[in-house]
Structure to design on (609 residues):
């Protein structure tokens, strides 16, 4: 069973799915709802803030515009415009009026006045005022030649300050960013244009009003004119060429043009991963818009924090679920794995495993029933094994009884011949070898070592050499590292004996038998038995190989009719080798004919690592 199909894996997977999916769904819904609530709250709060700022800016601009009306409050100012530059008293009164305007507005940087009647330009700045004759104002826009429909008062957007054509007081005097209020001075109630007044204003008041609207570390504030030229952007230094982001400018342009359904003086939109809240000031001569940019990471910071907190809680919950699942699964699968180990031991042949599972749940009941079943199976196997062992013992005894009479007859005849020849010492040696063989064949022992089998084979061949004399050559060579391997008793003699049954008496010339063994690198002992007797007919050789390949039981061997007596011996050897070897490394017998004649038998027995 692979780990992917185990109960523990399935239980963990089920518990994780059952807890993870609801947690993820809850976190997602909480995050979405929190984002929506935060967006709505941020929009409402910032609209109120920006509305208040727009009111303050509108009041500020109106105050500057009202201060510029001082040119009409002084009854002599309009008359003095025509007198300068010749009348020094008139010049002084004009200076006084301009200083009054400068004092009324704290952010005034400088004032510029041009009289169309007297062709005179005046600049009020630090440290001294300046005056010179000019036929027209500093620029065409101020002189009224670029647009006949221009209003009598307007605001010029943020720009770098200049001296209106006058020589600078100092070459090192830096320019600053200013906005300028321009007012055309008319001879009221007529529309005759007497001059133009320009008031350059510092950005300090605008910066003070804007600083209350945003957090400079996280947000940004913009004040733009109707052409989306930036008037103020978080600081007082603004370049003439600085404009809004193209996407944001396009959105504002659509709002002003009425191409979107929420065209109002206030609103919000999302662009470039940020929320933009805007408010139009609404001044008749300062068409400005306040825009606050709130990045998504700032806007949804609380939602992200809440989500991370929920994620940490979810992770802690998952860890607890995993630990609890592992605990429960171990309590369930632990006894199952123990029961599986018992089954593996039983499968390996240990049928008398003591199954000890004391749990009182269903698994414990299953283990107790399995133990009772194994007791029943062991009793049945023991009864069948005893029957099979009895059959095998009877068969082996029948085999020994079948082999021994022929061999004993030939051996005793050879010993009798030696006695007639009065070779008592040789006769004694042969009788000693015969007695050892008989004692070995009567041993009540199933398995012996190769050393004992080799000695028994040597004694057997020694007695056969006495019979055949120089007509039989024997070569025995057993490697020392193979002699300790175990094998069934009476394995080699039946294999050797077939040569004397089928080849020794009919073979012309000298007979030859060779037995040698060696240990392979993969821990197998190979025993080679070779002779130069007649070859086995091909049909019979195929039949013998089938005997060795089939898993025949002892009862099948005994009950099977055979045409030749040696069939029992060969089959018995193969069956006993299989019965006394492990299922992972079963013993192997391979039999082949040699060229030009002879037979080779190879027995392979696993020696273990």
């Amino acid at each position: 069973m692979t780990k992917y199909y185990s109960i523990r894996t399935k239980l963990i997977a089920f518990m994780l799915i059952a807890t993870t999916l609801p947690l993820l769904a809850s976190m997602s819904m909480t995050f979405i709802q929190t984002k929506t609530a935060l967006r709505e709250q941020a929009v409402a709060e910032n609209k109120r803030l920006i509305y208040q700022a727009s009111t303050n800016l509108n009041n500020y601009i109106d105050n500057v515009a009202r201060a510029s009306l001082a040119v009409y409050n002084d009854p002599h100012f309009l008359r003095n415009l025509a007198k300068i530059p010749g009348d020094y008293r008139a010049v002084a009164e004009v200076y006084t009026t301009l200083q009054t305007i400068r004092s009324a507005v704290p952010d005034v940087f400088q004032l510029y006045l041009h009289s169309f009647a007297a062709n005179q330009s005046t600049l009020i700045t630090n440290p001294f005022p300046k005056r010179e004759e000019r036929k027209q104002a500093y620029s065409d826009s101020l002189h009224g030649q670029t647009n006949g429909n221009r209003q009598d008062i307007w605001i010029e957007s943020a720009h770098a300050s200049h001296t209106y054509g006058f020589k600078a007081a100092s070459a090192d005097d830096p320019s600053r960013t200013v906005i300028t209020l321009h007012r055309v001075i008319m001879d009221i109630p007529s529309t005759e244009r007497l001059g133009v007044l320009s008031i350059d204003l510092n950005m300090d008041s605008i910066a003070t009003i804007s600083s209350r609207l945003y957090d400079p570390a996280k947000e940004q504030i913009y004040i733009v004119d109707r052409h989306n030229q930036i008037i103020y952007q978080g600081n007082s230094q603004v370049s003439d060429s600085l404009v809004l982001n193209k996407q944001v400018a396009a959105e504002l342009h659509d709002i002003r043009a009425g191409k979107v359904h929420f065209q109002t003086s206030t609103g919000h939109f999302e662009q470039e991963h940020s929320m933009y809240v805007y408010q139009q000031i609404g001044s008749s001569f300062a068409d400005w818009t306040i825009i606050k940019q709130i990045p998504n990471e700032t806007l949804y910071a609380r939602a992200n924090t809440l989500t991370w907190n929920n994620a940490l809680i979810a992770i802690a919950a998952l860890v607890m679920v995993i630990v609890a699942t592992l605990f429960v699964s171990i309590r369930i699968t632990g006894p199952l794995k123990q029961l599986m180990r018992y089954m593996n031991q039983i499968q390996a042949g240990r049928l008398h495993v003591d199954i000890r599972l004391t749990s009182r749940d269903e698994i414990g009941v299953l283990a107790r029933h399995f133990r009772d079943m194994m007791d029943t199976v062991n009793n049945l196997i023991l009864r069948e094994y005893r029957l099979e062992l009895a059959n095998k013992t009877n068969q082996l005894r029948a085999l020994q009884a079948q082999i021994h009479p022929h061999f004993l007859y030939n051996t005793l005849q050879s010993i009798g011949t030696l006695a007639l020849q009065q070779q008592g010492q040789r006769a004694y040696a042969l009788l000693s070898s015969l007695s050892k063989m008989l004692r070995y064949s009567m041993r009540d022992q199933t398995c012996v070592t190769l050393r004992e089998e080799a000695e028994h084979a040597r004694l057997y061949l020694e007695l056969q050499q006495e019979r055949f004399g120089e007509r039989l050559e024997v070569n025995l060579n057993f490697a020392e590292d193979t002699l300790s391997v175990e094998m069934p008793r009476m394995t080699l003699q039946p294999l050797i004996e077939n040569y004397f049954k089928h080849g020794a008496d009919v073979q012309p010339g000298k007979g030859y038998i060779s037995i040698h063994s060696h240990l392979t690198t993969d821990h197998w002992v190979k025993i080679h038995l070779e002779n130069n007797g007649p070859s086995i007919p091909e049909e019979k050789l195929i039949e013998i190989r089938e005997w060795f390949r089939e898993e025949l039981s002892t009862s099948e061997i005994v009950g099977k009719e055979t045409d030749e007596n040696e069939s029992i011996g060969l089959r018995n050897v193969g069956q006993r080798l299989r019965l006394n070897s492990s299922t992972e490394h079963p013993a192997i017998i391979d039999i082949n004919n040699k060229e030009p004649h002879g037979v080779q038998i190879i027995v392979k027995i696993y020696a273990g690592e």
The longest strand covers residues 177-186.
